[in-house]
Amino acid sequence: MTFGSLFSGIGGLDLGLERAGMECRWQVEISEFCRRVLAKHWPGVKRYGDIRELSGGELEPVDLIAGGFPCQDVSHAGPRVGIDGPRSGLWSEMARLVRELRPHYVLVENVPGLADRGLGRVLGDLAGLGFDAEWKVLPACAFGAPHPRERMFILAYPEGEQPGQLRRLQCSPESLPQRNVHWSEPEPPCERVAYGIPDGLDRLVSLGNAVVPQVAEWIGRRIVAADVQTAGLL
Prior knowledge:
The chain has one domain: 3-Layer(aba) Sandwich (Rossmann fold). The chain has 7 helices and 7 strands; from the N terminus they run E-H-E-H-E-E-H-E-H-H-E-E-H-H. The chain has helices at 12-19, 32-41, 91-101, 114-117, 119-128, 200-209, 213-230, and strands at residues 2-6, 23-28, 46-48, 64-67, 105-110, 131-139, 150-158.
Protein backbone atom coordinates (compact mmCIF):
# COMPACT_ATOMS: atom_id res chain seq x y z
CA MET A 1 0.00 0.00 0.00
CA THR A 2 1.11 3.55 -0.70
CA PHE A 3 0.34 6.61 1.37
CA GLY A 4 0.77 10.36 1.33
CA SER A 5 1.39 12.34 4.48
CA LEU A 6 -0.14 15.72 5.30
CA PHE A 7 1.01 17.90 8.21
CA SER A 8 3.88 15.42 8.45
CA GLY A 9 5.78 17.04 11.33
CA ILE A 10 8.88 14.96 12.02
CA GLY A 11 7.30 11.82 10.60
CA GLY A 12 5.99 9.86 13.58
CA LEU A 13 2.84 8.84 11.75
CA ASP A 14 4.83 8.08 8.60
CA LEU A 15 7.31 5.90 10.47
CA GLY A 16 4.53 3.84 12.05
CA LEU A 17 2.77 3.28 8.73
CA GLU A 18 6.05 2.25 7.11
CA ARG A 19 6.65 -0.26 9.88
CA ALA A 20 3.21 -1.66 9.07
CA GLY A 21 4.36 -2.36 5.52
CA MET A 22 3.21 0.77 3.66
CA GLU A 23 5.29 2.96 1.36
CA CYS A 24 5.38 6.76 1.71
CA ARG A 25 5.21 8.56 -1.64
CA TRP A 26 5.04 12.22 -0.53
CA GLN A 27 4.99 14.46 2.54
CA VAL A 28 3.53 17.93 3.10
CA GLU A 29 4.96 20.03 5.93
CA ILE A 30 5.33 23.80 6.28
CA SER A 31 7.96 23.87 9.06
CA GLU A 32 11.49 24.24 7.72
CA PHE A 33 12.96 22.44 10.75
CA CYS A 34 10.59 19.49 10.33
CA ARG A 35 11.32 19.30 6.61
CA ARG A 36 15.03 18.96 7.41
CA VAL A 37 14.24 16.04 9.73
CA LEU A 38 12.05 14.44 7.07
CA ALA A 39 14.76 14.89 4.44
CA LYS A 40 17.24 13.07 6.66
CA HIS A 41 15.03 10.03 7.22
CA TRP A 42 13.11 9.98 3.91
CA PRO A 43 15.67 11.28 1.41
CA GLY A 44 13.91 9.72 -1.58
CA VAL A 45 10.41 10.98 -0.79
CA LYS A 46 8.97 14.10 -2.44
CA ARG A 47 8.23 16.94 -0.03
CA TYR A 48 5.99 19.96 -0.33
CA GLY A 49 5.53 23.04 1.83
CA ASP A 50 2.30 24.98 2.43
CA ILE A 51 -0.76 22.79 1.96
CA ARG A 52 -2.79 25.86 1.02
CA GLU A 53 -0.66 26.32 -2.09
CA LEU A 54 -0.84 22.68 -3.18
CA SER A 55 -3.27 21.07 -5.61
CA GLY A 56 -4.13 17.42 -5.94
CA GLY A 57 -2.84 17.47 -9.50
CA GLU A 58 0.70 17.96 -8.16
CA LEU A 59 0.54 14.84 -5.99
CA GLU A 60 0.91 11.20 -6.94
CA PRO A 61 -2.28 9.18 -6.32
CA VAL A 62 -1.98 6.97 -3.22
CA ASP A 63 -4.01 4.29 -1.44
CA LEU A 64 -4.18 6.22 1.82
CA ILE A 65 -3.90 9.85 2.89
CA ALA A 66 -2.82 10.33 6.50
CA GLY A 67 -2.39 13.46 8.54
CA GLY A 68 -2.83 15.17 11.86
CA PHE A 69 -4.13 18.65 11.10
CA PRO A 70 -3.22 21.39 13.65
CA CYS A 71 -4.86 20.89 17.04
CA GLN A 72 -4.39 24.32 18.64
CA ASP A 73 -7.98 25.52 18.16
CA VAL A 74 -9.64 22.28 19.28
CA SER A 75 -7.35 21.33 22.15
CA HIS A 76 -8.51 21.66 25.76
CA ALA A 77 -5.29 23.61 26.38
CA GLY A 78 -5.77 26.09 23.52
CA PRO A 79 -8.14 28.98 22.77
CA ARG A 80 -10.94 26.43 22.14
CA VAL A 81 -12.40 28.34 19.19
CA GLY A 82 -13.07 25.09 17.34
CA ILE A 83 -12.36 23.64 13.95
CA ASP A 84 -13.06 26.91 12.16
CA GLY A 85 -10.13 28.55 13.96
CA PRO A 86 -7.09 29.81 12.03
CA ARG A 87 -4.97 26.72 12.74
CA SER A 88 -7.39 23.80 13.05
CA GLY A 89 -9.34 25.25 10.14
CA LEU A 90 -6.66 23.72 7.92
CA TRP A 91 -8.76 20.55 8.12
CA SER A 92 -10.64 22.02 5.14
CA GLU A 93 -7.42 21.85 3.11
CA MET A 94 -6.95 18.20 4.03
CA ALA A 95 -10.54 17.48 3.02
CA ARG A 96 -9.95 19.30 -0.27
CA LEU A 97 -6.96 17.10 -1.16
CA VAL A 98 -8.91 13.98 -0.20
CA ARG A 99 -11.64 15.10 -2.58
CA GLU A 100 -9.15 15.76 -5.37
CA LEU A 101 -7.09 12.57 -4.95
CA ARG A 102 -9.83 10.09 -3.93
CA PRO A 103 -7.72 7.64 -1.87
CA HIS A 104 -9.19 4.36 -0.66
CA TYR A 105 -8.51 5.17 3.00
CA VAL A 106 -8.09 8.33 5.08
CA LEU A 107 -6.41 8.37 8.49
CA VAL A 108 -6.87 11.51 10.59
CA GLU A 109 -5.09 12.19 13.90
CA ASN A 110 -5.85 14.88 16.45
CA VAL A 111 -6.32 15.54 20.17
CA PRO A 112 -9.33 14.25 22.16
CA GLY A 113 -10.70 17.81 22.30
CA LEU A 114 -11.75 17.37 18.69
CA ALA A 115 -14.72 15.36 19.99
CA ASP A 116 -16.25 18.57 21.38
CA ARG A 117 -14.93 21.08 18.85
CA GLY A 118 -15.07 19.61 15.38
CA LEU A 119 -15.57 15.85 15.14
CA GLY A 120 -19.03 16.29 13.63
CA ARG A 121 -17.56 18.55 10.94
CA VAL A 122 -14.80 16.06 10.09
CA LEU A 123 -17.20 13.11 9.92
CA GLY A 124 -19.71 15.14 7.91
CA ASP A 125 -17.07 16.21 5.39
CA LEU A 126 -15.86 12.61 5.03
CA ALA A 127 -19.43 11.39 4.57
CA GLY A 128 -19.94 14.00 1.89
CA LEU A 129 -16.91 12.56 0.09
CA GLY A 130 -18.38 9.05 0.18
CA PHE A 131 -16.61 7.67 3.25
CA ASP A 132 -17.79 5.86 6.34
CA ALA A 133 -15.56 6.22 9.39
CA GLU A 134 -14.82 4.96 12.86
CA TRP A 135 -12.80 6.66 15.53
CA LYS A 136 -11.13 5.95 18.82
CA VAL A 137 -8.99 7.77 21.39
CA LEU A 138 -5.84 5.68 21.85
CA PRO A 139 -3.34 6.39 24.67
CA ALA A 140 0.35 5.85 24.01
CA CYS A 141 0.69 4.20 27.43
CA ALA A 142 -1.46 1.31 26.14
CA PHE A 143 1.44 0.56 23.79
CA GLY A 144 4.12 0.69 26.46
CA ALA A 145 4.96 4.39 26.47
CA PRO A 146 5.81 6.03 29.82
CA HIS A 147 3.15 8.73 29.31
CA PRO A 148 -0.60 8.82 28.49
CA ARG A 149 -0.48 10.99 25.33
CA GLU A 150 -4.07 10.37 24.32
CA ARG A 151 -4.83 11.01 20.66
CA MET A 152 -7.96 10.57 18.56
CA PHE A 153 -7.61 8.57 15.35
CA ILE A 154 -10.30 8.60 12.66
CA LEU A 155 -10.16 5.91 10.00
CA ALA A 156 -12.32 6.45 6.91
CA TYR A 157 -13.05 3.92 4.16
CA PRO A 158 -15.50 3.73 1.23
CA GLU A 159 -19.15 3.93 2.20
CA GLY A 160 -20.66 0.51 2.79
CA GLU A 161 -17.30 -1.25 3.08
CA GLN A 162 -16.50 -2.37 6.60
CA PRO A 163 -13.74 -4.99 6.56
CA GLY A 164 -13.60 -7.07 9.71
CA GLN A 165 -10.10 -5.92 10.63
CA LEU A 166 -11.26 -2.31 10.87
CA ARG A 167 -13.91 -3.19 13.44
CA ARG A 168 -11.01 -3.93 15.80
CA LEU A 169 -9.83 -0.33 16.07
CA GLN A 170 -9.94 -0.49 19.85
CA CYS A 171 -7.52 -1.18 22.68
CA SER A 172 -8.65 -4.57 23.89
CA PRO A 173 -5.85 -6.40 25.74
CA GLU A 174 -5.67 -9.20 23.18
CA SER A 175 -5.23 -6.73 20.29
CA LEU A 176 -2.37 -4.70 21.73
CA PRO A 177 1.27 -5.41 20.94
CA GLN A 178 2.58 -8.37 22.93
CA ARG A 179 6.25 -7.55 22.48
CA ASN A 180 8.74 -5.50 24.41
CA VAL A 181 9.15 -2.01 23.01
CA HIS A 182 12.27 0.06 23.63
CA TRP A 183 11.56 3.58 24.80
CA SER A 184 14.27 6.22 25.01
CA GLU A 185 15.10 7.58 28.42
CA PRO A 186 13.45 10.98 29.00
CA GLU A 187 15.63 14.04 28.70
CA PRO A 188 16.69 15.79 31.93
CA PRO A 189 14.25 18.40 33.28
CA CYS A 190 14.98 21.52 31.28
CA GLU A 191 12.15 23.94 32.09
CA ARG A 192 11.48 24.45 28.39
CA VAL A 193 15.00 25.63 27.53
CA ALA A 194 17.34 23.97 25.08
CA TYR A 195 20.59 23.32 27.01
CA GLY A 196 22.54 24.55 24.04
CA ILE A 197 21.12 21.95 21.67
CA PRO A 198 20.98 23.29 18.09
CA ASP A 199 17.37 24.01 17.14
CA GLY A 200 16.46 23.03 20.70
CA LEU A 201 13.15 24.85 20.85
CA ASP A 202 12.10 23.60 17.40
CA ARG A 203 13.01 20.10 18.52
CA LEU A 204 10.87 20.31 21.67
CA VAL A 205 7.89 21.66 19.74
CA SER A 206 8.23 19.00 17.05
CA LEU A 207 8.46 16.18 19.58
CA GLY A 208 5.43 17.57 21.39
CA ASN A 209 3.40 17.53 18.17
CA ALA A 210 4.61 14.14 16.96
CA VAL A 211 2.52 10.97 16.69
CA VAL A 212 3.88 7.98 18.61
CA PRO A 213 5.01 5.57 15.84
CA GLN A 214 4.00 2.44 17.76
CA VAL A 215 0.37 3.57 17.80
CA ALA A 216 0.42 4.43 14.09
CA GLU A 217 2.00 1.05 13.32
CA TRP A 218 -0.76 -0.80 15.19
CA ILE A 219 -3.44 1.02 13.18
CA GLY A 220 -1.50 0.60 9.95
CA ARG A 221 -1.29 -3.16 10.34
CA ARG A 222 -5.07 -3.33 10.65
CA ILE A 223 -5.51 -1.22 7.52
CA VAL A 224 -3.14 -3.46 5.55
CA ALA A 225 -4.88 -6.60 6.79
CA ALA A 226 -8.29 -5.17 5.93
CA ASP A 227 -7.13 -4.22 2.45
CA VAL A 228 -5.81 -7.72 1.80
CA GLN A 229 -9.05 -9.19 3.12
CA THR A 230 -11.14 -6.95 0.85
CA ALA A 231 -9.06 -7.97 -2.16
CA GLY A 232 -9.96 -11.59 -1.48
CA LEU A 233 -6.40 -12.64 -0.71
CA LEU A 234 -7.30 -14.20 2.63
